[in-house]
Design a protein that fits this description.
single chain; mainly beta; Maltoporin, Chain A; 22-stranded antiparallel beta barrel; 5 helices; globular
């Protein structure tokens, strides 16, 4: 047996032994919350078991236990079927070789336009290319994350074809003033500095943060640095109404030396991104909803001559009514405009914008307190291609407090981007991509709710996929692609003791076509153990048959073992040490961008 395999086997045996031994000490009087409340599947807070589609949930404590600087790499540890590409110890980059793409059940896109990123329910994507900018999503600003695995276009429109990642930001909750200061240093001269401050008095609360991250990079000319500032204000006008406003600015610069399989080719990006929003939320006994205004903007300067400014602005209104017992009806209107101007070095700047207007209705009716039937319909109008109709239907059956069965059929779609229609291999006559998803899930709780499992089967069929056809220089994008994905997802959370939590998930994905960044099998196991002032996080990830290149056809299979220990030295002061890739695996996720072997990160945090 190889040394690496021997280490992996012993790690698994140790974890199983620990689970078995500690289970015998389990105190049955301890419980975990019966319900996890989510908003992403319905736009208002409801119990997760009443949402007819698959939703994964990451709490603030779980995010902090991973030690991740950026929020995205933490997703796969808690959500089956989710995979995020990486290419450096810090920094995802853009253009050729860029990473940070999120794949859900094999749906993503290049760039990532098939999975929608939301911040507090507002869509986040670049106005010209239509993809999110993952470098701006720092973990210190996040209260929790909800991942809707499967189409969510009924509620969120375009780009939610494969699913939604809703990043819910922090809000000051306790009265008075508090905050934190954090600094860390690691391999490749990787540094992080962060500060947060929050204040609450009566009905007014404010939260603000500043982050600076930098690294020399894994290879020469792969350095990265980012400075991010965020502030959020919440004012409770009354017990029924509240206003929330926020502003985020991020400035990052990165160098890229290209693939190791080619001659070094220096490439630099200099990007400024920002977003601001204003929300008025209402909550009464029989109705609740919100009016939200948002504006995303950015400026991109690349060393290949590309310079662009873009924006993505919109307004959202939705209201949920409870007209009679067991009924919940949500109606909403979304209006947005996205676009920008850019210069590829070959043409004069030109401003291009697209307008979208969507109206939708979503209803859920409970029957005999055990069955809930859901149905919805959305009509989307796009100034480029016209109308798109988006239906969905779902069924929940809860025979007991510990068992939940659900099934759904839903449609997702993605509008063509400005880049696809007007810039590179353009075709202004493109139609939207679409997908139909069928899924069934079984959620079960055991041991007085200390153990929770979820098993999901799904089948997705895509049509009208946008692909480049023809021979250079006569190339043109066309709606000619189709795909068929099916798979199995399993997730489990087990609170063995108050001080020991286990998380595990497994996914199997079968695709009729080769897709980048969508592993055939993925397994994640995490154990978090507290002993007095120490907290130990041990995580294991195994990836099987991950395509990193289609031409040449190249796959990767690898196993990563990471450990993180945090010591609460005094009441408001802690220190941590993280050791990553302890098996010293040689692997890459983006073709030609090898990721680091054993590496470390250590730091301190002061709270006040």
């Amino acid at each position: 047996m190889k040394t690496k395999d021997f280490i992996q086997l012993n790690c698994l045996i140790f974890l199983l032994f620990m689970i078995n031994g500690l289970s015998a000490q389990n105190r049955l009087t301890d419980t975990i919350p019966l319900e996890e409340v989510v908003v992403t599947g319905t736009k208002i807070e409801v119990a997760q078991k009443l949402v007819p589609v698959s939703v994964s949930h990451l709490s603030k404590a779980e995010i902090e236990s991973t030690g991740e600087i950026n929020i995205l790499p933490a997703l796969s540890a808690f959500a089956p079927g989710v995979f995020v590409t990486e290419r450096n110890i810090l920094g995802f980059g853009v253009s050729t070789g860029g990473s940070g793409a999120i794949s859900i059940r094999g749906v993503s896109g290049s760039p990532n336009t098939g999975v929608l990123i939301l911040i507090d329910g507002h869509p986040q994507y670049q106005g010209i290319f239509g993809h999110p900018l993952p470098d701006a999503y720092v973990a210190s600003d996040v209260e929790k994350v909800e991942i809707l695995r499967g189409p969510a276009s009924i509620l969120y429109g375009s780009n939610a074809m494969g699913g939604v990642v809703n990043i819910i930001t922090r809000q000051q909750k306790s009265d008075g003033l508090n905050g934190s200061l954090e600094a860390s240093y690691g391999s490749y001269n990787t540094q992080k500095y962060a500060g947060t401050v929050g204040y609450k008095k009566n009905r007014l609360s404010v939260f603000a943060s500043v982050n600076h991250d930098q690294t020399d990079g894994i290879r020469e000319n792969t350095d990265f640095r980012i400075t991010n500032g965020y502030t959020k204000m919440n004012w409770e006008l009354s017990e029924h109404l509240q206003i929330t406003a926020d502003l985020n600015l991020a400035k990052f610069n990165a160098n890229d030396n290209g693939s190791v399989y080619a001659e070094p080719e220096f490439f630099n990006i200099d990007i400024t991104r920002g977003k601001t929003s204003l929300s008025l939320e209402n909550r009464y006994d029989k109705t609740e909803g919100a009016l939200k205004l948002y504006h995303n903007f950015g400026e991109h300067t690349l060393s290949d001559g590309w310079h662009s400014t873009d924006r993505n602005s919109g307004a959202m209104f939705y209201q949920t009514l409870r007209p009679f017992k067991g009924n919940r009806l949500t109606v909403g209107v979304d209006a947005k405009q996205f676009g920008g101007e850019g210069n590829s070095g070959m043409a004069a700047d030109s401003l291009i914008t697209i307008n979208e207007l969507g109206i939708y209705a979503y209803m859920q009716q409970s029957i005999l307190q055990q069955i809930a039937v859901s149905a919805g319909l959305r009509l989307e109008h796009n100034s480029g291609y016209g109308n798109e109709l988006v239906p969905m239907i779902g069924l929940n059956y809860n025979p007991s407090n510990n068992t939940s069965l659900k099934a759904s059929v839903s449609k997702g779609f993605r509008s063509p981007t400005i880049m696809e229609m007007y810039l590179f291999a353009p075709n202004p006559e493109l139609e939207p991509e679409s997908m139909i998803n069928y899924e069934v899930s079984w959620i079960q709780q055991y041991l007085k709710n200390r153990l929770r499992t979820e098993l999901t089967l799904f089948y997705a069929k895509g049509d009208n996929m946008i692909q480049v056809a023809g021979q250079y220089p006569n190339v043109r994008r066309q709606n000619i692609g189709v795909f068929s994905n099916k798979g199995v997802e399993f997730a489990a959370r087990y609170r063995v003791l108050d001080k020991l939590h286990l998380h595990a998930n497994y996914s199997f994905l079968s695709m009729d076509k080769v897709v980048l960044a969508a592993p055939r099998q993925q397994f994640n196991l995490m154990a978090v153990y507290q002993y007095k002032v120490l907290t130990l996080n041990l995580s294991l990830q195994h990836i099987d048959r991950l395509y990193t290149s289609v031409n040449p056809e190249t796959t990767q299979s690898y196993t990563l073992l990471n450990a993180r220990i945090n010591a609460q030295l005094i009441k408001n002061f802690s220190a941590f040490l993280a050791l990553n890739n302890l098996l010293n695996e040689e692997y890459e996720i983006n073709y030609g961008y090898p990721l680091p072997g054993i590496n470390f990160n250590l730091g301190i945090k002061l709270s006040f």
